[in-house]
Specification:
By secondary structure, the chain is an alpha/beta fold. The protein contains 10 helices and 12 strands. The structure holds adenosine-5'-triphosphate and magnesium ion.
């Protein structure tokens, strides 16, 4: 069963540059779902719309168009103006952020941080909450004595564990993990990945794991969505199709992984231009990746490719595939 369903979601922002206002699509016609107990990896480079999508799913903002469903119930529908139903789903859908030092009050102790959702969502007594906090600390690999430490006294990896414990406290069904590893050292990244893997197995929580690091996502994901310029370029519903991914942008992402660097035709050449807001402007009708694509044809500038099924569970939006 689909726990989260994202249906043709668009998010338009307005930005002011050199005294002029531009509107552009940070997320443009994105559809995919997160199945119960599964992890969907969402990858793509900086600015492609990953965090925006995460914020839309937890209901911090509303999409401009489209709909997001949690267990067939609407979290938010296409209207920037409506008040998002954040509170209604706050218990079920929890977000873990990139920089844990930003995500918590540095003057709070671990106990105060983890206790907050218990106060908001349960009618536990102070004594029960205390016991639950200790249980949660153990679950994330911390110690009972850590409960009285202030946020600032933890290392980055330890504080990310506290944040994961806080997210677990409300008994959620889904974690939206927005770059949970990127502010951590490589060795600590592996520990947090292992922790997330254990939690997923033990506690039946579904994940949307947002990252620009394809390798880290591969470790945990059951399905994969590749975004560029606000749009989905390629999508596999089963990670065992990973080696078959062939969109030119996915190929470029793969080329940054040492084991894949020898793939043909994936090096960018000098004439290629980098992504700018132009390809996300409302009136741009081509493929957002056209400026950097080594395999582009004339049609790519003119017409946005539709998402098509290349084989069961494998989809891509590309004119040459
Ligand atoms: N509130 C906002 N107002 C205007 N523009 C915004 C707003 N939030 C995001 N954007 C823009 O939307 C685009 C997508 O941003 P988003 O933060 O979703 O990217 P991202 O994929 O998460 O990138 P990163 O990997 O750097 O975190 C960017 O161009 C960003 O500048
Ligand atoms: Mg982001």
């Amino acid at each position: 069963m689909s726990l989260i369903e994202i249906k043709k979601v668009k998010k338009r922002y307005k930005v002011r540059k050199f005294g002029k206002t531009y509107s552009f699509m940070a997320v443009n016609d994105v559809s995919f779902s997160v199945e119960e107990g599964k992890c969907v990896g969402l990858v793509g480079e900086s600015g492609c719309g990953k965090s925006t999508l995460g914020r839309l799913i937890v209901g911090l903002e509303n999409p401009t168009e489209g709909e997001i469903l949690f267990k067939d119930e609407s979290v938010s529908t296409g209207s920037d103006k409506k008040v998002p139903k954040r509170l209604k789903f706050a218990r079920d859908i929890q977000m873990v952020f990139q920089d844990s030092y930003d995500a918590v009050n540095p003057k709070f102790t671990a106990k105060k941080i983890i206790e907050e959702p218990l106060k908001n969502f349960t009618d536990m007594t102070a004594e029960e909450r205390e016991k639950e906090v200790v249980d949660l600390l153990h679950k994330v690999g911390l110690d009972e004595k850590d409960k009285d430490k202030f946020a600032l006294e933890f290392s980055g990896g330890q504080l990310q564990r506290v944040c994961i414990a806080r997210a677990l406290a409300s008994g959620p069904k889904v974690f939206i993990l927005d770059e949970p590893l990127s502010s951590l050292d490589v060795s600590v990244q592996a520990q947090i990945l292992n922790l997330l893997s254990d939690i997923k197995k033990d506690m039946d929580i579904s994940y949307l794991l947002i990252s620009h690091d394809l390798e880290a996502v591969y470790y945990l994901a059951d399905a994969l969505v590749v975004m560029y310029g606000g749009q989905i370029m390629e999508k596999i519903d089963d990670i065992s199709y990973f080696d078959k991914m062939k969109h030119p942008y996915t190929q470029r992402l793969l080329s940054s992984i040492p084991a894949y660097e020898k793939l043909d035709g994936v090096q960018e050449n000098a004439e290629m231009v980098s992504m700018d807001l132009h390809v996300q402007a409302d009136d741009f009708s081509g493929c957002p990746y056209v400026g950097r694509c080594p395999k582009r044809i004339d049609l790519c500038k003119e017409k946005r490719p539709e998402m098509k099924e290349l084989e069961p569970k494998h989809y891509a939006a590309c004119h040459i595939l």
